[in-house]
Amino acid sequence: MSQVPLAEKLRPRALVEFAGVESLDAHLVRQLQRAEGRIPSVILWGPPGSGKTTLAKLIGAAFDCEFVELSAVLAGVKDVREVVEQAKRLAKPTLLFVDEIHRFNKGQQDAFLPHVEAGTIALVGATTENPSFYLTGALLSRCRVIVLKCLDDSALRGVCERGEQELGLCLSDGARSLLVGASGGDGRRLLNLLEAYSSGRDRSVAPSEESVAQFLSTCHGAFYDRDGEEHYNLASALIKSLRGSDPDAALYYGFRMLEGGEDPRFLIRRLVIFASEDVGNADPRALQVAVSTLEAFELVGLPEGRIPIAQCITYLATAPKSNRSYVALHRALDAIKQHPNAPVPMHLRNAPTTLMKSVGYGKGYRYPHDEAHGFAAGVRYLPDQVNGAPFYEPSERGNEKTIRERQIWLRDQALGKQ
Fold it and tell me: CA–CA separation, 257 vs 297, rounded Å?
């Protein structure tokens, strides 16, 4: 019995078989169809199972060249030099495919530069990480970046049907949709799931939607890289969904991170920051809820700790929003940069010694509690050099509307208005 995985058996051997070919860079497609000119040096950037390795092999097959494959996990500069030396001796061009090229450090990446520039090799690199973060500018300037996307449902259904035909299965539309949904846009994962589902099954019994659902309930593995770009993509989507007052989207992104293996404490820290930065005084209880969520999680752990996290997410998403405290923070920091040594007004200084009192420390200070309404009208607290617009300007949302009204009243009192 063949031990070749189903995903490898069904790897496209021609461009027309490539799932999602219509979304590929049109210029690259024309180059491969015509196989004219020099082999392009490209960086293929996309999520797992989007076809990076397959496309690299299709590029190699389109041109009359020597195809050499290396993995940056196992190879080093020595291996690259050996490929270059071999390429110099060959009559036909050499295409070097480097999988997970982001694993090479900047020094190792520099080893490609003179050989790509001279045309000794054509380089095709594959990466799941953002090239602008992981690859050097010099290497990127010599290669074209081709972005591959997750396969859409239509392409995935086509992949699934090919797999069914190979395995002798005939799934219902509902069962197929369950597998497509569980694949997360990853064609290889879809075929692996299909192959695992079919393993050991009685082929005389038609696959049911219920049996596929039961099988998938035991499978885990949402695509999530705690140290890579997907970590930042999902964290950004969570915060923007909270800020946009969409509790459903916020729950989706937050728990997608947790289901993918994210540390719950990282997620809760982001919620605490959001409660202060984006809700602020529009609802001061938001910060209390977020901090209490951390305490609750430390008390009960997982899986029950997901419940207070969900409560916190829905509370923050539906709370009135204000970033005015956050804006005030940065206005104050700007003022500090402009006036780092502005002297504290004399009336605000304590006078613990006779000498300090004699030179004016604390002179003229008015104790607000002794004043009408607990407010000393007309007293200035900022240094004289720090002028301009106020740092904190409350919004008219939530609790800040009350704060704003009080600020206006205090300002009127300071101006002598009744």
Answer: 16
Per-block average pLDDT, block size 10, for the chain (418 residues)?
Answer: 80 86 83 83 90 92 91 90 92 92 91 92 92 91 91 90 89 90 87 87 76 81 59 91 95 91 91 96 96 95 93 96 94 91 90 90 91 84 84 91 89 70
Tokens 């000119």: give the residue.
37
Q: What angle do CA 266, 271, 274 make, to 5 degrees?
A: 125
Q: Which phi and psi angles does 95 have, rounded to 5°?
A: -105, 120
C-alpha to C-alpha distances, 313 to 100, 180, 274, 308, nearest whole angstrom: 35, 29, 10, 9
Would you say 363 and 322 are in contact if contact means Cβ atoms under 8 Å apart?
A: no
CB-based contacts of 52, cutoff 8 Å, min separation 6: 44, 45, 46, 99, 126, 127, 148
Strands annotated E in 340-399: none
For 127, the enclosing helix (H) or strand (E) is strand 121-127
CA-CA distance, 173 to 162, in Å (whole number)? 14
Which DSSP letter does residue 40 get? P
Tell which residue, 25, 19, 23, has the closest CA to residue 51.
19
Strand order in the sheet with 94-99: 66-71, 94-99, 121-127, 42-45, 144-147
- CA nearest 127: which of 138, 140, 111? 140
Cβ neighbour number for residue 286 with a 10 Å cutoff: 26
d(CA 194, CA 179): 7
- Which residue bears the tokens 């010694």? 353
Phi-psi map region of 9: left, alpha, beta (phi>0 left; psi -120 to 50 alpha): alpha
Within 96-143, where are the H helices? 106-110, 113-118, 131-134, 137-140
Which residue, 216, 289, 302, 317, is CA-closest to 262? 302
Distance CA 362, CA 182 (A): 70
Question: What is the separation of C-alpha 212 from the centre of its chain, rounded to a whole number of angstroms?
Answer: 31
**Cut 0.70: pTM above it:** no
The DSSP H or E segment spanning 66 is strand 66-71
How many Å from the N-terminal Cα to the C-terminal Cα in the chain?
94
